[in-house]
Write a structure and sequence with these properties.
Elements (H helix, E strand, L loop, with lengths): L1 H8 L6 E9 L8 E10 L3 E11 L4 E13 L2 E12 L5 E10 L3 E11 L3 E2 L5 E5 L1 E11 L2 E14 L3 E2 L11 E12 L2 E10 L4 E12 L4 H4 L5 H4 L18 E5 L3 E5 L5 E2 L4 E3 L2 E5 L3 E8 L19 E3 L15 E7 L4 E3 L6 E2 L6 E3 L7 E3 L3 E2 L5 E2 L3 E6 L2 E6 L2 E5 L4 H6 L4 E2 L2 E3 L6 E5 L2 E6 L2 E2 L2
Parallel strand pairs: 18-25
Antiparallel strand pairs: 1-2, 1-15, 2-3, 3-4, 4-5, 5-6, 6-7, 7-10, 8-9, 9-16, 10-11, 11-13, 12-16, 13-14, 14-15, 17-20, 19-22, 21-23, 23-24, 26-35, 27-34, 28-33, 29-30, 30-31, 31-32, 35-36, 36-37
Family: Belongs to the intimin/invasin family.
InterPro entries: IAT_beta, IAT_beta_sf, Intimin-Invasin_domain
GO cellular component, one term: cell outer membrane
Length: 455
């Protein structure tokens, strides 16, 4: 009965207030914190609680708020919790879930941390940061024969290409660290801590600290009594102890993309001779030094603006359609942007192409009656050739008229018919029954027979 009364005297409905002062070898108080553990609902078996904390970061503070439950199962106290951590001066936040299993002399804890929110720009303007995803597992044991001593060992790992696990400003890829600690509690109010953290590649960190654990409603004389340590650390007396977790978030960094370029794709079907304005979207933190174009720059008649380092004013002229078999009639173009710091980045590649219907060769699809065309003939304003040769454009089909016989030619645009005014048809003879080609462009209208073409 006396023991039960002593245990209950350590469980105030106002909970516990903790102040942890940590000092590293450089004299910094990074990781120091103050917390308040508040029991929301407590009975003989179940405990629902929340906790509020403020943790010291190198140049700012981190707010921590958590909610959890604990319950007794035989000789164990089991529990789970969830926390929200946020850097008070920045938009950096994370969430965590944890589980714990406490025995009389052994405590096991595990936590998983996950970033909340997107990447944020750092003060140096060249990097972005966010909370890192990771986990830790901790085991604590106190000596049954001397309960003023408590030992701990933990393993933690965080994931990312540049994770600052040691809060030193140096990033590591998926770092892993093992920590061992030793605590000495002369009286329930005071605990002296020492911790060694060992990472990969010889990286390590040492901390010593002083922890003040004040329990509301418990007489100060009782909290300063050495013989009360065993009772306060017992499974029942420690129900209001803070969960074992890392209140100081680990941060992941990545290099900011301070030079990017995008070359907009022009319309797919362009007409020969058409001028196309190129659209460049460039983001450069340090300014543009030069643009280096790659691909079919000569074939596309790449034309620069007055300022060749400007992304605006660049243009190309679409080449003439190539009717040779296998000709792609597409040309490739990309650009490399160089900034004033010497960094280079390549754009996407575009492949503008000429539309065959806008090209300048049209193939007849039926046999034409033979007709001898002698001497040079000119097109008159009514789209007619003398000697009974006429051009007709009806419903996107160009027709050739030979003495009353029609031969249809594959689709083209009517503006090419209009542009044919003033073009010249040179001396060509078409034999009866041969397949004929008619070409419009290059300043002349020609005909092809028997595989020969003259202009």
């Amino acid at each position: 009965m006396k023991v039960s009364h002593q245990l209950e005297s350590w469980l105030s409905p106002w909970g516990n207030a903790n102040v942890d002062l940590l000092v590293d070898k450089e004299g910094k108080f990074t990781g120091s914190k103050g917390s308040w553990f508040v029991p929301l609902q407590d009975n003989d078996r179940y405990l629902t609680w929340n906790q509020y904390s403020v943790t010291r970061r190198e140049h700012d503070l981190v707010g921590n708020i958590g909610l959890g439950q604990r319950w007794r199962v035989g000789g164990w106290l089991l529990g789970y919790n969830s926390f929200y951590d946020k850097v008070l001066s920045e938009s950096l936040a994370r969430g965590s879930v944890g589980a714990e299993a406490w025995g009389e002399y052994l405590r096991l804890s595990a936590n998983y941390y996950h970033p909340l929110g997107d990447w944020q720009l750092r003060d140096n303007q060249t990097q972005e940061q966010r909370m890192a995803a990771g986990y830790d597992v901790t085991a604590q044991a106190r000596l049954p024969f001397y309960q003023h001593i408590n030992t701990s060992v933990s393993v933690e790992q965080y994931f990312g290409d540049s994770v600052d696990l040691f809060h030193s400003g140096t990033g590591y890829h998926n770092p892993v660290a093992v920590s061992v600690g030793l605590n000495y509690t002369p009286v329930p109010l005071v605990t002296v801590t020492a911790k060694h953290k060992q990472g990969e590649n010889g990286v390590s960190q040492n901390n010593v600290g002083l922890k003040l654990n004040y329990r509301f409603g418990v007489p100060l004389k009782q909290q300063l009594a050495a013989d009360e340590v065993a009772i306060s650390n017992s499974l029942r007396g420690s129900r209001f102890d803070s969960p074992e977790r890392d209140n100081l978030p680990v941060v992941e960094y990545r290099q900011r993309k301070n030079l990017t370029v995008y070359l907009a794709t022009p319309p797919w079907d362009l007409q020969s001779g058409e001028t196309v304005q190129l659209k460049l979207q460039i983001h450069s933190l340090h300014g543009i030094k030069a643009l280096h174009w790659q691909g079919d720059t000569q074939a596309l008649s790449l034309t620069p603006p007055v300022d060749a380092s400007s992304p605006d004013g660049w243009s190309i002229i679409m080449p003439v359609w190539n009717s040779e078999p296998g000709a792609a009639n597409r040309w490739r173009l990309s650009v490399v942007v160089e900034d004033k710091q010497g960094q280079r980045v390549s754009s996407n590649e575009i492949a503008p192409g000429a539309d065959r219907a806008a090209g300048q060769v049209y193939h007849a699809r039926r046999l034409l009656d033979g007709l001898a065309l002698e001497d040079s003939l000119l097109v008159d304003p009514y789209r007619r050739f003398h000697a009974g040769f006429e051009l007709h454009f009806l419903q996107h089909v160009l027709y050739v008229y030979f003495d009353g016989a029609f031969g249809d030619i594959q689709a083209t645009g009517d503006h090419f018919v209009r542009q044919s005014l003033g073009y010249q048809l040179e001396n060509v003879a078409l034999a009866r029954g041969q397949l004929a080609d008619v070409a419009i462009g290059g300043g002349a209208v020609g005909a092809q027979a028997g595989g020969q073409h003259r202009r």
